[in-house]
Write a structure and sequence with these properties.
The protein has 569 residues and is an alpha/beta fold. It contains 18 helices and 23 strands. Strands 16, 17, 18, 19, 20, 21, 22 and 23 form an 8-stranded antiparallel β-sheet that branches. A 6-stranded mixed β-sheet has the order 1-5-4-2-3-6, sandwiched between helices. Helix 4 packs across helix 7 and helix 12 crosses helix 16.
Amino acid sequence: MIKEKYLLWCEKATKDIDLINELKAMANDEELINDAFYTELEFGTAGLRGVIGAGTNRMNIYTVGQASQGLAAYINSISKNGSVAIGYDSRIKSDVFAKISAEIFAANGLKVYMYDELMPTPMLSFAVRRLKCDAGVMVTASHNPAKYNGYKAYGADGTQLGPEAADYVLSIMQSVDAFEGVKTTDFDKALADGKIEYISQDIINEYLENVKAQQVEKELDLTNLNVIYSPLNGTGNKPVREILKRVGLKNVTVVPQQELPDGNFPTCPYPNPEIRQSFECALSMAKTIPADLLLATDPDCDRVGIAVNQNGEFKLMTGNDVGAVLLYYILSRRTANGTLPKNPVAVKTIVTSELCQKIADDFGCQLINVLTGFKFIGEQISILEAQNEQDRFVLGYEESYGYLSGAYCRDKDAVVASMLICEMAAYYKSQGKTVLDVLNEIYEKYGYFYCSQTSFTCEGQSGMEKIKSIMSGLRENPPKVIAGSDVIKINDYKASVSINTETDEKTEITLPSSNVLSYFLKDGSSVIVRPSGTEPKIKLYIGAMDETHEKAESRREDLKNAGTKLLGF
């Protein structure tokens, strides 16, 4: 069966010379053929994501074509005069996949709005809502290595597609012949006929105005702050620099090696602002250029990471820590200047540190917990908007470096996060403090909440089977003790049940089903296990809390080692 698929592609996949050459090159490599064809890329609420190349298990013009045909069918099933917005990042073939998608949507009778150059993911989410589109597509693989690309699909509300819509798209994909069943047209002809239209500069300016409106201290002088910024060869270069300029931040130096778009990411093969490697070029520059803050956004500019100059040494901050300080800054300063709304709301994911609960409680802010994925944070904003209470929303964030302030879009936004982080750093600098100083003050006030996240890569068919085996093994034989502390509660989000292990009492979890297991320990610590929805990885989240830095750090290491052993790595 796999060999038959391969031979069919050799015969039919003739529209992309790169695929033709790759198919020829793998002719005698049985393992490579198997990995490329043993399955089909699965379309889910996160869309498609995979390695670029030839095969049913790869990102290419044919798998993207099937997804676009499926999404077009979905839009036509809910709208008579449907429309769709398209954005893309700097990754290899992102522009090609965006153009192919536009041709397919136009051929299926949809109006297509498309950015004429690479743009951040949040700007796609904004455009969907602003242009009243029925759906949106962002061609990106976020912070994955260069060999990956992806296809994020959005609904009319600007959040990624829900399960029912994703299932509909998948059902069409599975029934459509990749070579003969996809409708298409000529891009230039569709553009001339008005079926495809480029998104205007007015929409871009409107987005930036919405971002700027999220300033907390609108009169703050930012000229005292020095920043080195890296867009990591992605989409953040123009919009991040523009918004920092608009709020008065003049001393911004851009990392030259990482400034221009380049899908090969030559200086950081894994362009993820969560890891130190992404900051190496900026750290080198900081030896000769004064800087208070190093800032890096991932290729589609929906995540941002920072390193803070603390007494001459740059220290990277985690997503949990940045989110906690941001929440504290927004709540404390908006309280002080009288702009905090009545009954404010913040939203975090279940794998994000519980420190923010302490902060929210202190300021009378409602904190809502949602499943992992910014889609669920966006849904909470939409619920508030339906009640005309969107102004209550002050911040949504996840530990994986995604933040959003403001209801103008429904996805994490590194443009607004970059602006707020720089504003926050400038404000605290004017008070003689760094962001790290403030984090330590928060720890002293609320307790030392130390977290970590470890990912274990399991690639290919064997890797997928290993992840399934780990999760099923944990469910069949749940741990009773982790790192010397009894497990007192288990949340199985797939079964939607919370189990008190001391009484065997079960209660329902009122969140959508998700393949996540959370273990709560007697000492107040937590261990969470979650297979990634976008990468071939299984993730381990550790949460340790204690009264001192030393105790919390020691406990975190013990839990990390025990959790790693629990997963069999």
